[in-house]
Amino acid sequence: MSEQDVKKTSEEVLISANEENEKKPPFQTPKGVHDILPENHDYHTYIKKVVRHRSRQAGFKRISTPIFEFTEVFKRTVGEASDIVNKEMYTFLDRKGRSLTLRPEGTAGVVRAYIQNNMKDLPQPVELYYYSPFFRYEKPQAGRYRQFWQFGFEIIGEKDPALDAQSILISKKIYEDLGIMDSLDLQLNNIGDVESRIKYAEALKDYYYGKERYLSEDDLMRLEKNPIRILDSKNEDTMILNQSAPGFEEFLSKESIEYHNEVKEYLDVLGVKYTENTKLVRGLDYYTQTVYEFWDKKRGSQNSVGGGGRYDGMIELMGGEPTPATGFAMGVERVIAQMKRMKVKVPKKDNLHVFVAQLGKEAKKKCLPLINELRDKGIKTMGALGKGAIKHQLKLADKFNVPYTILIGLTEVRENTAIIRDMRVGSQTTVAFDKVVDEIVKRIGEDKLDFYDPSQPI
Ligand code: HAM
Predict the structure, then answer these.
(1) What pLDDT, on the 0 to 100 scale, is given for residue 6?
(2) Whose Cα sits closest to atom 10 in ligand 1?
(3) How much is the average pLDDT of 303-312?
(4) Residue 331 sits in the same domain as residue 365
(5) What is the dihedral of CA 395, 396, 399, 404, to 10 degrees?
(6) Is the pLDDT of residue 11 over 80?
(7) Is residue 278 situated within a structural domain?
(8) Ligand 1: residues whose CB is within 6 Å?
(9) Distance 144 CA to ligand 1 centre (A)
(10) Which residue among 334, 335, 336 has the greatest number of ligand 1 atoms within 8 angstroms of its CB, and so is best to mutate?
(11) 206 found inside a domain
């Protein structure tokens, strides 16, 4: 193909993309991924603050693992029969032919880091949290994206029903802090130990054999590889069949039943309400014993805003010593959608205090250091440093919704003064230039200033 042909082809591509939707600019984000624009960043910032606060209270430390890992990390833990491994991973070969995968979830990477960094030598349990982006090649729809954010925590190195109850309580408190817990329902189950699950899987096989014609291709594969996964199917016929499938409770070992009862006792002590759901299996294969999800009361399982549970086998599966663990993760986009549905307002600090308008180069020379000094004093300041007329700049100040505008024109430069305009009442006062900052501080109020104090603990 000649260079011209290549050029023509790319032009044609652009033209056909434009024809599809004339108003769309030629470059769009790929399907299922989104920009986080400032309005939504306010939610992210707020959520990050809330989860950081609760994590810190509980003694969790932050961890960030790489965005990609060796594919085997996820295959081995999340499970070959899970949708995530089967069809939702962004897997690619690097230049040396090694298979790498964009992380679809956080637990496997944290466990890999726990083993690799000998965290077993630290005081146990090791409690870690993360706030990170994850990637799943899912069919995009409301609340289901190909890049999404999760806050999650993992507690590795100890096993006790009280710990499970405490993890659930922390998750619940976070939803309370975010103002959405009233709209959520906590679904709880115990999926037993490995032996109980083998027995249960056999019973499910017996149940689905003979009903294969109602199962989707994926569910038929699951029937062979891991029949318990069928309970998590989104295929409508299968979902109907699932309603009459045997429940886990008949196959739980005595120890698992006792463990589950104890978790529930502790939840009762903590006043945490839950709905028992013996069909809740979660979408990942690594769980043992306690599993839970937070569902929207109206929408149910389709839009789980978070979930977690115990995964006592994973560390050994990844080459570490047998070590119990439990954890939780919530989908940040889904939480934001829920906050918007519940009309939760995010209080924010980034409203500007002052707008500085100027006219002419000499005025600009006075404004630049003034803006700098105002900001250093904790006054959130925006300056119009372009060439617009004062009238135009005042309109802009109105749009930014500032309480005060400082105006410096030719007269003010000559007289070494500045005008302070109170935007709410429209009144103006002329003050000596070297008194402007003090006057603004007085009007804003010392307690409203926004200081960055690097000596404060992080
Ligand atoms: P998960 O249930 O797969 O669990 O994901 C946790 C949450 O992430 C979901 O409840 C949902 O809110 C959100 N989420 C999942 N997929 C998407 C998507 N495609 N778009 C938007 N949000 C999504 C885990 O990932 C486990 N690692 C949780 C865990 C931690 N278990 C133990 N420790």
Answers:
(1) 43
(2) 306
(3) 95
(4) no
(5) -90
(6) no
(7) yes
(8) 105-107, 136, 138, 143-145, 148, 150, 152, 154, 283-284, 304-309, 311, 327-331, 333-334
(9) 10
(10) 334
(11) no
Amino acid at 216: S
Nearest CA to ligand 1 atom 32: 327
Query: Does 280 share its domain with 409?
Result: no
pLDDT digits (tens, 9 = 90+) for 105-157: 999 999 999 999 999 999 999 999 999 999 999 999 999 999 999 999 999 99
pLDDT higher than threshold 80 for residue 246: yes
Q: Hunting for tokens 């706030």 — which residue is that?
A: 131
pLDDT recorded at residue 179: 97
On whether residue 285 sits in a domain, the answer given is: yes
Q: How many domains does the chain have?
A: 2
**Ligand 1 atom closest to 305 (CA):** 12
Identify the three-state secondary structure at position 67: coil
Mean pLDDT throughout 231-251? 88
Radius of gyration from C-alpha coordinates of the chain: 29
Domain of 161 in residue numbering reads as 32-193+253-341
The enclosing domain of 382 has a CATH number of 3.40.50.800
Q: What is the pLDDT of residue 129?
A: 98
- How many CB atoms within 10 Å of residue 11? 10
pLDDT of residue 220: 92
pLDDT, position 92: 98
From residue 289, how far is each of 316, 320, 349, 417 by CA, in Å? 16, 20, 43, 73
pLDDT value for 2: 42
Helix, strand, or coil (residue 366): helix
pLDDT digits (tens, 9 = 90+) for 205-228: 999 999 999 999 989 988 998 898
What's the pLDDT tens digit per position in 84-105? Answer: 998 999 999 999 999 999 999 9
Task: Identify the three-state secondary structure at position 275.
Answer: strand
**CB neighbours of residue 86 within 10 Å:** 17
Q: One-letter amino acid identity for 1?
A: M
Mutate to test the pocket of ligand 1, among 137, 151, 284 (most ligand atoms within 8 A of CB): 284
Amino acid letter at 82?
A: S
Shared domain check, 118 and 140: yes
Task: Assign residue 101 the CATH number of its domain.
Answer: 3.30.930.10
- CA–centroid distance, 344 to ligand 1, in Å, is 22
Q: For ligand 1, pick from 63, 102, 103, 105 the residue to mutate: most ligand atoms within 8 Å of CB.
A: 105
Distance (Å, whole) CA 255 – CA 260: 9
Please give the structure tokens belonging to residue 434: 């070297």
**Residue 245 token pair:** 């499938």
The pLDDT, as a whole number, for residue 22 is 66
- CA-to-CA distance for 375 and 382, rounded, in angstroms? 9
Average pLDDT along the chain? 92
pTM for the model stands at 0.89
**Is pLDDT of 52 > 90?**
yes
